[in-house]
Specification:
Order of helices and strands: HEEEEEHEEHHEHHHEHHEHE
Strand order of the largest sheet: 4-3-6-1-2-5
Bound molecules: flavin-adenine dinucleotide, adenosine-2'-5'-diphosphate
Radius of gyration: 20 Å
CATH topology of the largest domain: Rossmann fold
Number of helices: 10
Helix content: 10-25%
CATH class of the largest domain: Alpha Beta
CATH superfamily of the largest domain: Nucleotide-binding domain of ferredoxin-NADP reductase (FNR) module
Largest sheet: 6 strands, antiparallel
Strand content: 25-35%
């Protein structure tokens, strides 16, 4: 005997919390970005992260934390992702195509938000690898430039290829009609960009920790010294990177803050490393 069960509306829906992929761009063998539809109810602060994923083989979703790389005014959501060869999520996520669905849990959280910093004049974004993702959001948010006179984006990767997503983003921003209208010719000074590599030659080289402690970045960009009175910072990289940058900033007299207690800098992990 067979049972003819009615197909309910809920059963027809593909995935719970599903969003549709609208665009995918591969930047290298190990990096890609993609855009998805934005749930109408999703409100977030630029710099926050959400959980995204795909259904697993056993029906249980494989979810991972992802910084939202698009600003909060954008109609869609953008993400910038690593491709981990054997990674439970990204070994599959890297194959998504426009029209596919991903799971997105609409509960944004995170410490890399403007509200977690005391008011200041100059804001440093310090990132390695995919740690640039939350800053891709904040760099595109006009509120960042309303709160700070100057933003310095330092992004360091092993190779020049890994810098291209950020470089293209900054270049597009410098030609953005809205920001151009607001800040005109001045915008190149409002948003300074300092990309460096550590394992192949490029115009600027070296670790962020070294370039900050030696003052090389200040010399190269012709900037005044770092002071806890005027400077604020956000850090996003591996755990080791975060720990070392934090120590450098503390050396400048700056202290770590949080949503509940704004201070001179905030930190977030770009990923959870093996065994960490
Ligand atoms: P996993 O099992 O999660 O990771 C396997 C190993 O790969 C890890 O142990 C680590 O050694 C390495 N790894 C994982 N992610 C990265 C990475 N991003 N860069 C370098 N090595 C990595 N990832 C992104 O690609 N983009 C983001 O915007 C992003 N935002 C995050 C925000 C937060 C707060 C946290 C905690 C993590 C974030 N991640 C981000 C990492 C992400 O959650 C996953 O780890 C990543 O997508 C890989 O998933 P996976 O299942 O394929 O492999
Ligand atoms: P390096 O090539 O000198 O190790 P990774 O891929 O290992 O996460 O590193 C990404 C980038 O961050 C690399 O350019 C790497 O430099 C740099 N980096 C890694 N660890 C640190 C750290 N503890 N302090 C400063 N920079 C770091």
């Amino acid at each position: 005997m067979t049972l003819d069960l009615p197909v309910t509306e809920a059963a027809k829906k593909t995935l719970p919390d599903a969003q549709t992929v609208t665009a995918v761009k591969h930047w290298s063998d190990s990096l890609f970005s993609f855009r998805v539809t934005r749930p109408a109810s999703l409100r977030f602060r630029s710099g926050e992260f959400v959980m995204i994923g795909l259904p697993g083989d056993n029906g249980k979703p494989i979810l991972r934390a992802y910084s939202i790389a698009s600003p909060n005014w954008d109609d869609e959501l953008e993400f910038y992702s690593i491709k981990v060869p054997d990674g439970p999520l990204t070994s599959r996520l890297q194959h998504i195509q426009p029209g596919d669905e991903i799971i997105l849990r609409p509960k944004p959280v995170g410490t890399l938000v403007l509200d977690a910093l005391l008011p200041g004049k100059r804001l440093w974004f310090l990132a390695t690898g995919t740690g640039i993702a939350p800053f891709a959001s904040l760099m595109r948010d006009p509120e960042t430039y309303e709160r700070f006179e100057q933003v310095v984006m330092m992004h360091t990767c092993r190779t020049a290829e890994e810098l291209v997503y950020g470089a293209e983003l900054v270049n597009n921003l410098r030609h953005d009609p809205l920001l151009g209208e607001l800040y005109g010719e001045d915008f190149a000074k409002r948003l300074m960009y300092y990309p460096t590599t550590t394992r192949e030659p490029s115009p600027f080289m070296g670790r962020i920790t070294d370039n900050l402690s030696s003052g090389k970045v200040l010399t190269d960009l012709n900037l005044p010294p770092i002071s806890p009175e005027t400077d604020r910072a956000m850090i996003c990289g591996s755990l080791a990177f975060n720990v070392d940058v934090k120590a450098v900033l503390e050396g400048f007299g700056m202290h770590e803050g949080a949503n509940s207690e704004p201070r001179e800098f905030v930190v977030e992990k770009a990923f959870v490393g093996d065994g960490v």
